[in-house]
Protein: YgjP-like metallopeptidase domain-containing protein
Amino acid sequence: MAEPQVEVRRSKRRRQTVSAYRDGDKIVVLLPARMSREEEKRWVADMLSRLQRSETRRRSPARESDEALVERCGELSAKYLDGRAQPRGVRWVPPMRTRWASCTPSEATIRVSQRLRDVPGWVLDYVLVHELAHLLVPGHGADFWKWVRRYPRTERAIGYLEGLSAAAQLGIGLDDDAEEAEAPAGC
Ligand SMILES: [Zn+2]
Structure:
């Protein structure tokens, strides 16, 4: 994961308490004004690891098994795609070199890279909505994005995945060019 950008804010009104929250891609740490640099360092490290633990707890239940993944796809299809995307198979697969996920519309099957097991649930949801939408519209045209953008955190999730790919120097895209050769239907 990328080192998050951290902004430290000191407040004269704060006496003892330290707190932290995520603001987009940035993490804001609130400290009492009189704290020393040394204490600041310790607290920032401490708050970052606490925040990371709580974000880890928010990972998707779909990470547990293929069955849980299938169930999540059903929920997302019902909620964002009028229940029209009905995959015949959804499963976790070993990390793929260039993709987070892929689908084969002709078979209505979806494969999700195990690299995504530990991302926040809302990021995995985006990936699933994206692949489910390919069961309705192959390719990445305007019709396709109209469906996908019904999922409200689409832009944020795309940004998250780009950051993740860049941080790990993976060069992974969602399912673009490489897929053409394998799935002529154009997932
Ligand atoms: Zn796609």
Summary: Confidence is low (pLDDT under 50) at residues 176-187. The chain has two domains: 5-57, 61-182. The pocket of zinc ion is lined by residues 130, 134, 140, 174-175 (CB under 6 Å).
